[in-house]
Write a structure and sequence with these properties.
homodimer, 332 residues, Rossmann fold, Hypothetical Protein Tm841, Chain: A,domain 3, 2 domains, 23% strand
Chain lengths: 332, 332
């Protein structure tokens, strides 16, 4: 295993030390592994919290800041944070307007966020709403998931919902935005290589030199099928077609994300986006906004994913609103 | 070779197609492989051009836009663009205030930019100044270089010099800023793995599973030495100490960049930055601004580099000025 780490047990905490050093505008609770925006809680604003296993950076800690999350809880690599972390974060971002939990659909995360919401209600009387992201069209009922997995759409949902909260919408309205995003978004990913979890020290799965995995999960969960390596053009079709088959994206503007899994160079990600865009053009899908880069990763996995989101005028204007986080920044 | 590409000969052009699709605010000349900011030439503004071999993305095409470059010329992977490309770009960004060429110190780039400057002067009477970046303390006289190589400092130089030009400074003053940055900046990099150039189809160099290369070049050129794998803390020292030995960074504010080579996850890059920052603190170096992520890469190479820049009040304010490019964006 070749990694820029010290001990395998200290990876997440030591990465948080680096985030604290690089981003003095954030506040890091190292003991509880929570990243807060520096000015949380914001009086009158709905508090937005997400979190999950580490190894998907910049998600979630890199999306904390003005116009996006108020706090992110970091679990061990590919492991849900504990209810205690979400409880602590919930109490600290609650300014009286309530708190929204954004949860990717994995059994552990669902359970732990639910427990935290109950404890917060009991302890401090906080009002907590929860939105579950389940956008992955690849498979139903995966290794760690009942139903569809939560993947790339989480990035878009955190941005758009964060803008709604920043604009002063109340808890119910902010949760409605999140649910609209989840209803109108779909994703599908693929891997050229496995990732290597530090504590395991070896690839999560074996993938022969001449094969790739279509429909991969962000923790290396099995996808739909293994196929021989193919040109980017064919890979793009293998990702876009199942998305378009699952939901009709014609007839209105769409936000498109071409996301890297962590180990694929930006040169290839842009090339892939060109192929995806050509397919969407041909299918009559109108891309109004796009995002290309590493936003929800799987450590050092080579590969990519495509996310599409139906975006009406309200969602587009929330997308365009200023955001200032380590991983996503514009307008400010 | 596992890559998200079609044919190996089309990688750069097809990536530019993707950049054009993702960034309608830019103008892409596919035939000449040039990325322009959409509103170039800007009347009264010094034109800023850079370029070099592809494979280092987001550098340079991802740094075109308001407050940074006016144009970037993309060569084949790890190969200098031709003089014709730089000539074309020079003519198209020249608004009468002159053009600054920002050139990383590689023999081919130096020669081709020089030829382009001479041709531009002869053809259109353009006034061209050139600044050469040579910040890599690792080695003197490398595989493609006489003197020191140009590496990570290029990112900081393009940002700061771009802000000077955007602020309306004239050609001489803009070139002076660039020279001040080059004089006050130093870098050093390391690799855990080789990169794979698409046209070669195999790793550029062999690096055993238990070794790393300290002082690596951004094209896989040999560094100072191969050593056994070590903890992040020791790697940070191997990068920072040669930089501090080369130039005194105490006594004033510093901009620090922890750059990923392309294949290392952000989790590790932040962890590395934490280690670098701890060493700088102990050495009495004051980090005023920082940047952590993949900014000047070597395709899919795993590894990182450290860049430090002495930044007086003028350079800091140019650093903080608004910038709007695919790879670097704030304040706008």
């Amino acid at each position: 295993m070749k990694k820029l780490i010290n001990g395998v047990d200290d990876v997440v905490t030591e990465a948080l030390v680096g985030i604290a050093a690089a981003h003095p505008e954030l506040r890091i609770d190292l003991a509880n592994r929570i990243v807060y925006r520096g000015d949380a809680p914001k009086a009158g604003k709905v508090g937005l919290i997400s979190g999950g296993g580490s190894g998907h950076e910049p998600l979630h800690g890199g999306f904390v800041g003005r116009g996006m999350l108020d706090a992110a809880c970091a679990g061990a690599v590919f492991t849900s944070p504990t209810p205690d972390q979400m409880l602590e974060a919930t109490k600290n971002v609650d300014a009286g307007a309530g708190v929204l939990h954004i949860v990717k659909n994995y059994t552990g995360d669902i359970m732990n966020f639910e427990m935290a919401a109950e404890m917060a209600a009991a302890e401090s009387g906080a009002t907590v709403e929860t939105v579950v992201v389940d956008d992955d069209v690849a498979v139903q009922d995966s290794l760690y998931t009942a139903g569809r997995r939560g993947v790339g759409l989480t990035v878009l949902l955190e941005k758009i919902t964060g803008a709604a909260a920043e604009a002063g919408r109340d808890l119910a309205a902010t949760a409605d935005v999140a649910k609209k995003v989840n209803a109108g978004g779909r994703s599908m990913g693929m891997a050229l290589t496995s990732c290597v979890v530090p504590a395991a020290g070896k690839p999560t799965f074996d993938l022969p030199a001449d094969e790739m995995e279509i429909g991969i999960g962000i923790h290396g969960e099995p996808g739909r099928r293994r196929v021989p390596l193919a040109p980017a053009r064919e890979i793009a079709a293998m990702l876009v077609e199942p998305i378009l088959a699952d939901l009709d994206f014609t007839g209105g503007p769409v936000i498109a994300m071409l996301n890297g899994m962590g180990g694929s160079p930006l040169l290839e990600l842009y090339l892939m986006y060109g192929e995806v865009k050509a397919i969407l053009d041909k299918a009559g899908v109108t891309v109004a906004r796009s995002l290309v880069g590493n936003y929800i990763t799987s450590l050092d996995m080579a590969g990519c994913s495509v996310t599409l989101l139906k975006a009406d005028a309200d969602l587009l204007s929330l997308w365009d609103a200023p955001v200032s986080t380590p991983g996503l920044r514009w307008g400010v």
